[in-house]
Amino acid sequence: MLNLAATPPLVAMPEVDSRELIAADLRKLISQIETSMGWTATTMDQEHGSDPEGSADVFVLDDVTLRYATAIAALDACRAGLGHALECLWEAGRTV
């Protein structure tokens, strides 16, 4: 849910400055998502670190791996959407 109470009032500024601020914010969000993806992958790897090695005939099915994989896929989709927004913003700046 969007919390507009914490949103600072909009200030009139040159269009170029606005685009640069938006782009910086999008890059920061992309970086945070990538960090979360790394933490999720590391946690998933640590949980599977206790699995016995050399047991190629044994498969351990758990629902936790699926949840981590789903979370990583959702984060990747968010990252892709933010990247697309950044590209659109860049394209808008070139046409002005």
List low-confidence stretches: none
Overall mean pLDDT: 79
Multimeric state: single chain
Fraction of helical residues: 55-70%
What Rg, in angstroms, do the CA atoms define?
A: 20 Å
Order of helices and strands: HH
**Given the helix and strand composition, which structural class is it?**
mainly alpha
Shape, please?
elongated
Number of strands: 0
Strand residues, percent: under 5%
Distance between the termini: 33 Å
State the major sheet.
none
**SS field, number of helical segments:** 2
Q: How are the secondary structure elements laid out?
A:
Layout: H1 15-47, H2 63-95
Helix pairs in contact: 1-2
Key terms:
single chain; 96 residues; mainly alpha; 2 helices
Brief rundown of the structure:
This protein is mostly helical and 96 residues long. It has a domain at 16-47 and 63-96.
Describe the structure.
The chain is an all-alpha fold and 96 residues long. It has a domain at 16-47 and 63-96. The chain is 69% helix and 0% strand. The chain is built from two helices and no strands. Helix 1 packs antiparallel against helix 2 (63-95). The longest helix is centred in the first third of the chain and has 33 residues, at 15-47. The radius of gyration is 20 Å and the shape is elongated. The model has no long low-confidence stretch (mean pLDDT 79).
